Amino acid sequence: MEKRRNMLKRIASTGVNLVVLGVSVGIFLVAFIALNALGAAQKPPTISILSATRNLNIGDVITANDLEVKTVFQDDNASLYIPGEEVTGVVGGIVAQPIGSGQPVFRNAIVAPAAEGTRLSAVLSQFPGHSLFPLPLDAMNLVSPDAEAFLPGDLIGVTVVISTRPQQMSTPTPMPELIIDPGYVEPTAQPSPLELEQADALSRALPPLAKDLFPMGVRVIAVQGLPQQTESSEDSGSFNLDTQAKMLILLVPNESREVLSLALQQGDRLVVSLMARGDETPSAGFTYWDFEDLFKQDREEVLGGGQ
Predict the structure, then answer these.
(1) Partner of 56 at 20 to 30 A CA spacing, among 33, 131, 144, 184?
(2) pLDDT digits over 59-93, tens only?
(3) CATH number for the domain including 74?
(4) Which of 71, 69, 73, 70 is nearest to 40 (CA)?
């Protein structure tokens, strides 16, 4: 009987110890989880961004092997980081600023679709063979709607008007004396009616003339120099008067930069027109003599129709 009583006491004591041990373990786990949660709460949030796997120099074309996803803490530069899921908007882009191996790829350091909104030239990654041409709206020989009438994405046409042709410098070349047999008659070819018509058209291709430089139209990428609206306590709709030159940033083919530059310099008038759609074929231009023919044709139709 005494043995049984001692055994029961021993079992009861062991049970109490197990309960105390279980409670201690539970308290330890709760404290451990709470400390981990507190430590995690004090850490800044993390984001997955693209970084360079090698040193990227200016002008390098970015490939998929040049990029890797890295987890970093979110900081003040988070808006310039490129998330890992935007890798397709980076591959094929061009490096505009040096990027070291392991460093994050910033949006303003590349020319690619992922950089749109941070770098104006980023649009060129989608249009190879094109340039961004600044067209000053305050040029003395330029006629256009107000700058406020333009929006990015507008299609415009540019028509150059030339009134006179610069004097061409020529040096007379002495011709060798040609002795012809008095009895020889040189045959002359008779031009066809089509050749005569083409020759007449070419002989009229002289100023005054007008020519559409971009029959298909060019896109407005940005409008610069517009007055910035400012917030005021007295007038919430006030504007800040800025003296910055107003310009249209146009997306033009590379081969058209020289043409548009010369037209801007030598043209007596440069007319900018808003367009709904362009024409696939180039224009033949329009000269003063074409205007005379049109005037005569219309006059004959009107006067002839009245008889």
Answers:
(1) 131
(2) 899 999 999 999 888 877 777 889 999 999 999 99
(3) 3.90.1210.10
(4) 73
For the chain, the residue count is 307
pLDDT digits (tens, 9 = 90+) for 248-259: 999 999 999 999
In a domain, 116, yes or no: yes
H helices within the chain, ranges in order? Answer: 2-42, 193-203, 257-266, 288-305
Residue entry with tokens 């094929």: 92
Q: Phi and psi of 158, rounded to 5°?
A: -125, 120
Q: Cα–Cα distance between 79 and 149 in angstroms, integer?
A: 32
Cβ-based burial of 178 (10 A; exposed 0-12, middle 13-18, buried ≥19): exposed
- Paired with 81 in beta bridges are 106
pTM of full prediction above 0.90: no
How many CA atoms does the CB half-sphere of 137 hold within 13 Å?
22
Distance, CA of 126 to CA of 64 (rounded, Å):
18
Indicate if the alpha-carbon torsion angle 84, 85, 91, 95 is positive or negative: negative
Q: In whole angstroms, how far apart are CA 178 and each of 104, 174, 175, 181, 218? A: 78, 12, 9, 10, 54
Same structural domain, 138 and 51: no
Same domain? 80 vs 219: no
Range(s) of the domain holding residue 71: 46-126
